[in-house]
């Protein structure tokens, strides 16, 4: 037993010798950095990109969703792990579009142009800001409801989910876009 105590004393002495020049940390909490979310400005002139046909159907009335309701869509073939990253905001956002205050027609055309430009620039993940509808005429989320329907129709949309609280919560969406060459 005496040999075991001597070994422990030698180990402690060796440890103390190795850390004698160490400086104490100023804090005891780890700093976890969230991924940087940057916005890329989409550039287009009328001569560069012809406008495509309106990809969104207006024949069917959009089903009204709640102001605080979480929207979620996972297209066929989207891996669960990738969707989980999208849902939790852990995919790098490359662009965003704020649709606040637009009429439905203006929002529909702006969204179609935005998606087209994102695909041309090989942008994969974007944030759409639609608001919660509290300032609409009847305090109903009209634009949010239509986005829920329109995005499900568009062939370039792989998945979408309501944003995290830091990025707008249920007033914004993370959207995962298909690569340009994959669009039918």
From TrEMBL:
<dbReference type="InterPro" id="IPR002625">
    <property type="entry name" value="Smr_dom"/>
</dbReference>
<dbReference type="GO" id="GO:0004520">
    <property type="term" value="F:DNA endonuclease activity"/>
</dbReference>
<protein>
    <recommendedName>
        <fullName>Smr domain-containing protein</fullName>
    </recommendedName>
</protein>
<feature type="domain" description="Smr">
    <location>
        <begin position="97"/>
        <end position="178"/>
    </location>
</feature>
<dbReference type="InterPro" id="IPR036063">
    <property type="entry name" value="Smr_dom_sf"/>
</dbReference>
<dbReference type="Pfam" id="PF01713">
    <property type="entry name" value="Smr"/>
</dbReference>
């Amino acid at each position: 037993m005496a040999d075991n105590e001597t070994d422990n004393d030698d180990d402690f002495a060796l440890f103390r010798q190795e850390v004698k020049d160490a400086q104490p940390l100023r804090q005891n909490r780890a700093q976890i950095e969230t991924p940087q979310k940057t916005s890329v400005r989409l550039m287009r002139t009328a001569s560069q990109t012809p406008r495509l046909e309106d990809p969104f159907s207006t024949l069917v009335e959009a089903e009204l969703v709640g102001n605080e309701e979480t929207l979620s869509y996972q297209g066929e073939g989207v891996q669960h792990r990738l969707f989980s990253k999208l849902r939790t905001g852990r995919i790098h956002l490359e662009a965003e579009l704020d649709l606040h205050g637009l009429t439905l027609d203006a929002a529909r055309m702006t969204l179609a142009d935005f998606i087209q430009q994102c695909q041309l620039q090989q942008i994969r993940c974007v944030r759409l800001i639609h608001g919660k509808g509290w300032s609409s005429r009847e305090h109903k989320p009209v634009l949010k409801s239509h986005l829920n329907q329109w995005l499900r129709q568009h062939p370039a949309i792989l998945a979408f989910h309501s944003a995290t609280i830091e990025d707008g919560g249920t007033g914004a969406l993370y959207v995962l876009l298909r690569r340009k060459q994959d669009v039918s």
